[in-house]
Amino acid sequence: MAIARSEPFRDQVCPLGVCDGSGWILGPEDVARPCECRAQRLHRGRSRGVSSVIPARYRGVSFDRPPVADMARDLQTKAAVGEVRAYIEELEERLAAGRGLWLFGDTGTGKTTLAMLISKAALEAGRTVAIYSLPKLLARIRQTYDAEPGGDSYTTFFERLTAVDLLHIDDLGAEKRSDWVLEQLYALVNERYEAQRSMLITTNLEHAELEEQIGPRTVSRLAEICDEVPVFGSDRRYGSYRPAA
Which of residues 146 and 74 earns the better pLDDT score? Predict the structure, then answer.
């Protein structure tokens, strides 16, 4: 009995070393049962088409290297590094519970660096992650309106954004406010809120400013599913700390 392979199983091997890569195990009398790898790979397949690549500047981030090692010794940022470390140590439990982090502070304090530590750890753990700055995410959504036949429609891309285990949005509140922006952000955050899927956000804006920029309904949902972590300090881009955002 031949079992046809389809994406995301074509030309792959079983990550568990159980099936032949098809996602099915052939039993007695040619009766097939699904392999445990099937659900994992179908989930990853549904997330294709989203950006899950750690930017080159942040690929080497580590608790043991600057700037994070320096931030861990700085009284202004030590607590924030501790919160990020705790999240990574409890990664599976936090993602299962739909819990995220909301990193906020002035420009250049290291928010993006700390957030990339979490996204990197989630990817290394085999979890699905979508990573976008807010301006790039909104630009990507706009592109779906002009998608060619066979390309990602708005609905398809939106479903992928809401299906990943962790949605990482950098520079929340950086886009010019408009009714369209408010609508997109609320729809996305509300869908992940209702589905109990984790979000990781960074912003330069304080709570009240963020409400003014993206709307109180959206901020209220983020506040419920994310633990707020202040990242204090001066702009490290002018010092020896690299990278930071």
Answer: 74
